[in-house]
């Protein structure tokens, strides 16, 4: 779908096809020079980290000492022993208590405990606070102790592992903890790597070493590492390794797992080192019998240990709200205690000091007694701040996380991948999501690539065609049986292309596939079958795109067979040819292309290049052919959502290559900015290219994506797609997954920029409406649906992040350029105007039903997420599958990783992980909504039961002279929150559900209360407060009235304080447990047992601790001797309890009945018809397996491609290892969706 663009009025209007140059473009660049000069090759500077091989004393020199405490110094090189534990036998108790008392709630209760020890203040025994506090501290301490013991065991096991080290001229066995920087070590197959080691040589003839990096990045596929050619050839024998005396100069220890820069000085020569030469600690040697290496970083300096720091702690909105409410409770507590203290002062002056029978022998003033009363009430009413709240919340969250892990409907059987909650602190936030930011490739699509079409010399191939070039009505797979190396899974439908190749009449077609077989960084392994015809080549590629292209070339007769350090061998239509590789210019996210320079068997030098059309077309020779026809084909491919790459070549003279090679060698050994220097050198040779054609690769949508997006949209969740793809591709994917519809008005970057410029101009022209007050007017007043499609270039333009515009701003700030006089100038006057522009953009985007940002870098993805968080205060979720999504995942409130084809980087950085995008609807609409409802219900009830319990003391104070006298028995206060009322509400927080999972998915509108925060806010908090006040009033005054001037059946008057305490406590326990029963929506045997069991436990314990036997044993601790047995044998006291409970619950029952009858919510309506809907769900037949229409869902070339194996290849030789067994890909991944997810 296309639309005409408005003519640009700004000469600096961005190109929709170009991505911003760097992910690191920030406002910090304002301080850089404004002239764009090519980067000069920096000179070699000495590095800060030096390692001398086989010389332990070198690291102990004075220049390598550093201060660590006062004047004491130690060596800056760490030993290899690691220490991840936090405590030892002596420090556990003090350190753990110190950490726990840094939490405000624990410190508060410790202060109360200290106050309770003071007899002049406290009327409450110290154990009433000590028991709950010790329980909370004990549970946390036990958890910390178990975790730390596990760390102790792990540290001991790791530090005592054995490794062979050269000592005294020969290899000797040593423990890991004894290894030092500069040691030469020998590792065997399946050994863990003990430190960050420079690979010197291996048993492989090409110094190749396979490593498994699962502990580093979660990926189980093998990586290739290779030693330098010079060390591999000279350091095979033990005596040669013992005499090795090279000096390594490299970067200081850091946490960059993707980068290492160093230089080895040996035999009067310098050799460049990079990450491909390093074996990192935490990896495991695989498929390599033996390798030798030099320790560069040890222990705490290794990269895996440097990455052991804490990640950014995410907290939910409910967390913040809960903390503010605890602060509110504390303020209320202080105010109530102050009021009661004032009351005691006046009471003592008017009554207490004049009543002779109240004289206590203390000559204290009324004011001083009021002061003591204040602290006494702080102690008595301390249960208003719930001590067990935080522990209970953590238990509930842990349980909810386990339910997510155990959900079989989020289990992906094809890859044996269950859903995983990688954090336990964010579950209820899943029920409040307003915006989802999704990557496209691998997230919405499968990221399993298939070569579908191509354009060569202006001709397009790939549609169903006969050998003679006649278009066919039906797809008929091409017969590749003539090629013994064919991939049986590969399908192509254009027989004409195959006939052109086999006839060898068109040299450009042959050159096209020769380029595909030579220009790549794929590693090859050969699996031998029983017969030669069964030989199977196994390709391992840095990206699915590259693997698909090399596989296509293989099937068309150009088979990549093997490679060495400086050669590549391919089979060209059955004839093997070997090409000398002179240089490999690898892909990165800035270059967006890769090139290879080869010397042909006839002596010619040729450069092959493939990359994104945006960068290739800028580097084409003016005499290059087929530009227009290829561009037309690229547009067609993009509209079909295919991923595209352009292919080109250049012939290079011997003299031109010699000049360039010298520059390349200089750049490859610099210590600072090596990558930038190499990129600059690459630019010098990648010019005046000749275009051959372009490839088109298909990437299908995942199953269930349109249905998931539609369902989430009904839940009022807005989905933004942030991708590196071309605009046309992203737009068509939007239509394919039904994020965009034909009814929507599509607005592009130029439209957005124009609307924002008009808004900005109006703001400048009306200063009264500008800074003092902000009037929010809609950008799209028409009621029709709108969608926004914006590129990375326009995004920088709109948000004032474009380099040229920032440069203007910097010059203006320096006074070299006056501010614009024309109000139509779109440049910001100051930071406030820039902020308003960003706010306007967010407002406009949020008015749209869908937003697609294409051609954006990983940093821009994170910036878009942070803008919505900042200006909309909305709860955001980011979902992606690749390393380029990590920034976005970490920035959002919730990060979800998809374990797909691009490794595990996204999953390792995420909060939740699963295998398919469609599981997102279940995560949010079922688990997220349930978690939110449960947590809100738990918190509302928790606050209510504590208010109802505590405020009885408040009413009692009016009848006790405000003397801080307690209304209950001591032990009841101690056990109330621990045993009598904790289990039912904990089970509600774990198990409650208003409707089942099927109805939650069927009615997405049920999700809306979570977005609105309707179930837990200050309104609900104060409702719980007033509900607690009402309940405490009833629980106190009805028994008070019943005890007033009352006579029992036996003629006695049981109107004593202790009997009154038993009746109020019994009424309270029954009331709060029946109250949670009224709030329970989902009843199980466990819930029923918890409610009845809590009441039974109360009466059982009460009769025990008020028995004569325990009083004899502990007369000072148990003073209510026989009270329960005496009081509860009076029938009218049981009637009093029943009356109290009934009056307490009757208004709640009436309010619930009226609200659900007269003002029912969506949830109430669904609950009312729940049985009907459940029967419908049972009767509903399963729909057929989801099948897509005839049109494929594809996507274009995205710049999420990871760095390839170029550096490794350039420094190594052919791969001769046997491949490890691996599962075959399925021909197609189709899964019949569960009816509950539809």
UniProtKB/TrEMBL annotation:
ATP binds at residues 439-441, 546, 587, 610, 643, 723-725, 855, 861, 884-885. Residues 159-225 form the P-type ATPase A domain. It is an enzyme of class 7 (translocase). One of its GO terms (molecular function) is ATP hydrolysis activity. It comes from the Eukaryota. Its EC number is 7.6.2.1. Residues 1-45, 1170-1198, 1210-1238 are annotated as: Disordered. GO terms for biological process: Golgi organization; phospholipid translocation. Residues 66-130 form the P-type ATPase N-terminal domain. This is Phospholipid-transporting ATPase. It comes from Electrophorus electricus.
């Amino acid at each position: 779908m296309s639309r005409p663009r408005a003519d640009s009025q700004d000469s600096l209007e961005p190109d929709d096809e170009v991505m911003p140059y760097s992910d690191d473009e920030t406002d910090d660049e304002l301080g850089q020079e404004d002239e764009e000069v090519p980067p000069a090759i920096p000179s070699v500077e000495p590095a800060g980290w030096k390692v001398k091989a086989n010389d332990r004393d070198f690291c102990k020199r004075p220049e390598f000492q550093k201060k660590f405490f006062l004047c004491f110094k130690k060596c800056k090189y760490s030993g290899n022993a690691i220490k991840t534990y936090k405590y030892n036998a002596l420090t556990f108790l003090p350190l753990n208590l110190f950490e726990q008392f840094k939490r405000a709630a624990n410190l508060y209760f410790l202060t109360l405990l200290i106050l309770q020890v003071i007899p002049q203040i406290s009327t409450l025994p110290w154990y009433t606070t000590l028991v709950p506090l010790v329980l909370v501290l004990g549970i946390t301490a036990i958890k910390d102790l178990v975790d730390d013991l596990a760390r102790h065991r792990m540290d001991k096991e790791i530090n005592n592992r054995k490794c062979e080290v050269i000592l005294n001229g020969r290899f000797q066995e040593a423990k890991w903890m004894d290894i030092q920087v500069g040691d030469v070590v020998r590792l065997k197959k399946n050994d863990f790597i003990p430190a960050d080691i420079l690979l010197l040589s291996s048993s492989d003839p090409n110094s190749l070493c396979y490593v498994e990096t699962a502990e580093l990045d979660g990926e189980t596929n093998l990586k290739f590492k290779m030693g330098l050619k010079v060390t591999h050839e000279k350091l095979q024998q033990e005596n040669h390794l013992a005499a090795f005396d090279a000096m390594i100069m490299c970067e200081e220890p850091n946490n960059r797992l993707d980068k290492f820069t160093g230089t080895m000085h040996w035999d009067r020569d310098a050799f460049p080192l990079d990450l491909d030469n390093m074996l990192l600690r935490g990896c495991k040697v695989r498929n390599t019998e033996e390798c030798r290496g030099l320790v560069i970083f040890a222990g705490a300096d290794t990269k895996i240990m440097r990455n052991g720091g804490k990640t950014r702690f995410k907290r939910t909105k409910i967390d913040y709200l809960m903390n503010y409410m605890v602060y509110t409770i504390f303020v209320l507590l202080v105010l109530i205690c102050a009021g009661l203290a004032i009351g005691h002062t006046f009471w003592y002056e008017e009554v207490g000091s004049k009543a002779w029978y109240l004289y206590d022998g203390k000559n204290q003033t009324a004011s001083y007694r009021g002061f003591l009363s204040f602290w006494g009430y702080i102690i008595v009413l301390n249960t208003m701040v719930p001590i067990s709240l935080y522990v209970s919340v953590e238990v509930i969250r842990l349980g909810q996380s386990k339910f997510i892990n155990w959900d079989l409907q989020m289990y992906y059987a094809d890859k044996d991948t269950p859903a995983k909650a990688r954090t336990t602190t964010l579950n209820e936030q899943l029920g409040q999501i307003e915006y989802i930011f999704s990557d496209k490739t691998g997230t919405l699509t499968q990221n399993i690539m298939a070569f579908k079409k191509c354009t060569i010399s202006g001709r397009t191939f790939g549609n169903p065609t006969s050998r003679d070039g006649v278009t066919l009505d039906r797809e008929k797979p091409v017969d590749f049986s003539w090629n013994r190396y064919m991939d049986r899974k590969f399908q192509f439908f254009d027989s004409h292309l195959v006939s052109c190749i086999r006839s060898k009449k068109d040299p450009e077609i042959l050159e096209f596939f020769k380029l595909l077989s030579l220009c790549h960084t794929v590693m090859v392994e050969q699996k031998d079958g029983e017969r030669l015809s069964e030989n199977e080549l196994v390709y391992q590629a840095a990206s699915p795109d590259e693997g698909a292209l090399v596989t296509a070339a293989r099937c068309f007769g150009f088979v990549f067979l093997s490679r060495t350090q400086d050669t590549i061998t391919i089979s060209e239509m059955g004839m093997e040819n070997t090409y000398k590789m002179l240089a490999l210019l690898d892909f990165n996210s800035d270059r967006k292309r890769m090139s290879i320079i080869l010397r042909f068997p006839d002596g010619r030098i040729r450069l092959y290049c493939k990359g994104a059309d945006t960068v290739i077309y800028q580097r084409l020779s003016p005499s290059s052919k087929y530009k227009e026809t290829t561009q037309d084909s690229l547009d067609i491919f993009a509209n079909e959502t295919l991923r595209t790459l352009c292919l080109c070549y250049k012939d290079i003279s011997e003299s031109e290559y010699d000049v360039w090679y010298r520059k390349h060698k200089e750049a490859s050994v610099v210590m600072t900015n090596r990558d930038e220097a190499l990129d600059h050198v690459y630019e010098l040779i990648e010019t005046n290219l000749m275009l051959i054609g372009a490839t088109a690769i298909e990437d299908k949508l995942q199953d269930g994506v349109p249905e998931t997006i539609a369902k989430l949209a009904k839940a009022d969740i807005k989905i933004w797609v942030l991708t590196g793809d071309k605009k046309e591709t992203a737009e068509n994917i939007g239509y394919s997954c039904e994020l965009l519809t034909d009814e929507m008005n599509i607005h592009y970057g130029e439209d957005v920029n124009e609307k924002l410029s008009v808004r900005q101009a109006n703001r400048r022209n009306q200063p009264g409406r500008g800074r003092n007050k902000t009037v929010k007017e809609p950008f799209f007043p028409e009621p029709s649906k709108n969608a926004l499609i914006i590129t990375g270039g326009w995004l920088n333009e709109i948000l004032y992040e474009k380099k040229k515009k920032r440069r203007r701003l910097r010059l203006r700030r320096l006074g070299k350029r006056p501010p614009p006089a024309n109000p139509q100038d779109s440049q910001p006057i100051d930071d406030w105007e820039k902020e308003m522009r960003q706010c306007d953009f967010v407002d406009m985007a949020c008015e749209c039903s869908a937003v697609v940002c294409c051609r954006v870098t990983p940093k821009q993805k994170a910036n878009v997420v942070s803008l919505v968080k900042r200006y909309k205060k909305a709860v955001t979720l980011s979902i992606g599958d690749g390393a380029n999504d990590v920034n976005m995942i970490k920035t959002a409130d919730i990060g979800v990783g998809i374990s797909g084809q691009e490794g595990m980087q996204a999953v390792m950085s995420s909060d939740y992980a699963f295998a398919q995008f469609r599981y997102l609807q279940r995560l949010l609409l079922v688990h997220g909504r349930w978690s939110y409802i449960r947590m809100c219900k738990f918190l509302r009830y928790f606050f209510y039961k504590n208010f109802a319990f505590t405020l009885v003391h408040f009413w009692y104070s009016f009848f006790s002279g405000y003397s801080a006298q307690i209304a209950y028995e001591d032990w009841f206060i101690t056990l109330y929150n621990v045993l009598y009322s904790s289990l039912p509400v904990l089970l509600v927080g774990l198990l409650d559900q208003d409707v089942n999972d099927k109805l939650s998915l069927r009615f997405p509108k049920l999700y809306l209360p979570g977005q609105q925060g309707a179930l837990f806010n200050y309104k609900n908090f104060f409702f719980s407060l007033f509900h607690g006040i009402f309940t405490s009033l009833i629980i106190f005054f009805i028994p008070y009235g019943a005890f007033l001037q009352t006579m029992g059946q036996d003629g006695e008057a049981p109107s004593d304080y202790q009997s009154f305490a038993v009746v109020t406590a019994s009424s309270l326990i029954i009331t709060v447990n029946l109250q949670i029963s009224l709030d329970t929506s989902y009843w199980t045997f466990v819930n029923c047992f918890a409610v009845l069991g809590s009441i039974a436990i109360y009466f059982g314990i009460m009769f025990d601790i008020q028995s004569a036997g325990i009083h004899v044993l502990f007369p000072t601790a148990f003073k209510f001797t026989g009270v329960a047995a005496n009081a509860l044998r009076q029938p009218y006291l049981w009637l009093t309890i029943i009356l109290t409970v009934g009056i307490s619950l009757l208004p709640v029952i009436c309010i619930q009945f009226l609200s659900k009858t007269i003002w029912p919510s969506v949830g109430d309506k669904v609950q009312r018809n729940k049985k009907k809907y459940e029967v419908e769900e049972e009767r509903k037949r399963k729909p057929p397996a989801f099948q897509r229409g005839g049109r494929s869902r594809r996507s274009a070339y995205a710049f999420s491609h990871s760095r390839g194996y170029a550096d490794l290849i350039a420094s190594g030789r052919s791969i001769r290892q046997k491949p490890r067994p691996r599962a075959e890909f399925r021909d197609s991944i189709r899964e019949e969706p569960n009816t509950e997810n539809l």
